[in-house]
Design goal:
Blueprint lengths: L1 H18 L6 E8 L2 E8 L9
Antiparallel strand pairs: 1-2
Length: 52
């Protein structure tokens, strides 16, 4: 059981690290207007990417 928990923890940490990498075609854009902050993703490639 201890090895399963260790393996699961390693898997979750490694997935989180790969998920945070910067993508060279999808950028996060931030616009601030007064107190309002708007974040949106911009795709500069012809392939559509799922961003959530």
């Amino acid at each position: 059981m201890k090895t399963h928990i260790t393996l699961l923890t390693f898997l979750i940490i490694s997935m989180a690290c790969f998920a945070q990498n910067e993508h060279k075609y999808v950028k996060l854009v931030e616009e601030k207007k007064g107190k309002c902050l708007t974040l949106y993703a911009v795709n500069s490639d012809s392939i559509s990417y799922d961003v959530f």
